[in-house]
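Researcher: For the record, we're logging two predictions in this thread. I'll number them. Prediction 1 follows.
Model: Prediction 1, sequence and structure:
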Amino acid sequence: MKLLNEESVKGRSLSLIGKCDVEEYIPYSRFLRDEVPELPQVSEVTLSRHFSALERRSHGVNNGFYPLGSCTMKYNPAVDEEIAAFEGFTGAHPLQDDSEVQGSLQVIKDLEDRLSAITGMDAFTLQPAAGAHGEFTGLLMIKAYLESIGETERNKIIVPDSAHGTNPASAAMAGFNIVNVPSGPDGCVDLEALRQAVGSDVAGLMLTNPNTVGLFDKNILEITRIIHEAGGLCYYDGANLNAVMGIVRPGDMGFDVMHLNLHKTFAAPHGGGGPGSGPVGCKEFLAEFLPGSHVEEKDGALVRVRPAKSIGDMRSFDGNFLVAVKALSYIWMLGAEGVKEASQNAVLNANYMRVKLSDIYTPAYDTTCMHEFVLNLQKLKAETGCSALDAAKGLIDYGIHPPTMYFPLIVHEALMIEPTETETKETLDEAINALREIYDKAYNDPEYLKEAPHSTVIGRPDEVAAARHPIVHW
């Protein structure tokens, strides 16, 4: 397949943008290019075919199973996209007076209220543009709070060894030192190690529950109690909320601040470069530190109000607003019982696949999981030479996107599978059969599996070279 630059023919063109109907104005000549950019010169049919060809090479939830663990790549109802495309939403401008965008402000307020109800938090901001952005926001709020009460010596954030990689990165960006605590044999936080890690210099804990091996930590109330008794705050990474929404709330587990992902849990598409949204919620004592503004009702109208000790703006205006519209539409459509049922089905699907595969594959933790589970392929690799990477590549030939590989790091030769609640039993059975056939291939024809995939344009690129020496321009 050729690049558009290779399809380019000098003088060939197409008209996608109409003639400008306002006077051209360039405020500063230094912003002008010295030369005209070398953009491809192609016809409309060439452009259409190019992007259609790219689409056919892409894999998404619209054309196949996508069990990417810890990422919740689920199908999102089209009605939410339609509602977000309403002219009243797409035509609103963030600089309009509050009186002119009452409907949009109502969306923000309603979504914040519903997210608070689902999570057990008291206040929310929709500003953060993604999950990691939300983590950074929450940690800055923790830092601001500690500074406000004169406890600046608290400079350590405790992070379990099974955490998402963004957790320690976000804490470091916020100026904290990272303390890792190990998991126990059951895949949950080692309580004794946690007790030894806490002290007067601990600012808080970052934790995902269910954790990254798909287990709900049975000691969660003891974990948050240990941190609180040491004077720290508890941060909840809401990446796995898809397993527990409508059933249990982070606020009731003892968490003080959290983020969640509208682009994973609440019907905004995940992947493809965005836009995402990582709203941050908190308990009342932290609300005055929230970034941006929140919506309040005053004199019968909705207005934006900035919190008294706001950490500032984490993004322009009210975040990715149309993503919020999709999320609110999704919550309205499901209702309280539907939100709960979504979690129950996600857990059911994951356990169905885990049990159906556990006679040949080794679950990393052979117990009831939540929305995702991890397989340990160490035995398979030792006996056949076929790795988790080989198994994942083999799935591509079945039209299935590979699950997450080699994560979390506490499980070697890991395949992390999250089927989500939107997949049918028939789809799960097809995936189970594919994984069973891959298992047989590993023992009967390992070289075939090591060369997979066989059905793609490119089989196995040199991923190390691509990471170390990327070609980022034509």
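Researcher: Logged. Prediction 2.
Model: Prediction 2, sequence and structure:
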Amino acid sequence: MRDLMKIVCCSFVFLAFLLDATAQTQDSYEYQSEFIWGINKNTYGGLIGGFVFKKSRKLNDRVLETYGLELMNVKHPQEIRKTSGTGNYYIYGKNNYLYALRLQYGRDLILFKKAPQQGVEVKAIFAVGPSIGIVAPYFVEYSSDGGGFTSYTAQYDPKNQDQILGTGRLFEGLGQSSIKMGANFKAALNFELGTVKDQVTGFEAGILFDAYTSKVVMMPEATENYSLYPTLFITLFYGNRR
């Protein structure tokens, strides 16, 4: 989390430098809509937190109306990978996954426009919307004979700790998921760095609050399980505009 906070802070320092460099930009080019997709890294995610999609259209010269979709794998902060007797990994104490599907409606405010094929376009991002939490059981592979020659998969149970061979198959147990409803709010700065007029390349950094109606029990024996997930994030994105 500290490393990501450093990245976000550096992004805002980078903004201050860019604002000075672009304040005198003239003859900015015009567009009416854009579509972007991106890869997200955040303080409640792993190496890749998830994926982001956003469609925008201009309401006026400085304001865009936006519709967003985020697909995230939310991790508990106390998750620790352990090695089984077979050398395979599993997450100690984890009972459930949380997959967050966030729908967002918002506004992008253009702070600084970009000149043709140079400079940076900077936007302030605000969005809010419902969150659909998919709580799926975390499956692990157990030895059924004590020697690892035959096995079965089931939801993690700390009572059978010594029989664990490793993590189950990806998305196994998704059909047994339950739904947890919530809401999210995002505030960020967006830096568009591309040099091609009809393409969008850059990054977005900011904070997001994801809140559910009750606690999501991902690790039953953990010190705390949460209903509110405030997270710092950075998203690298690519797209097109016209």
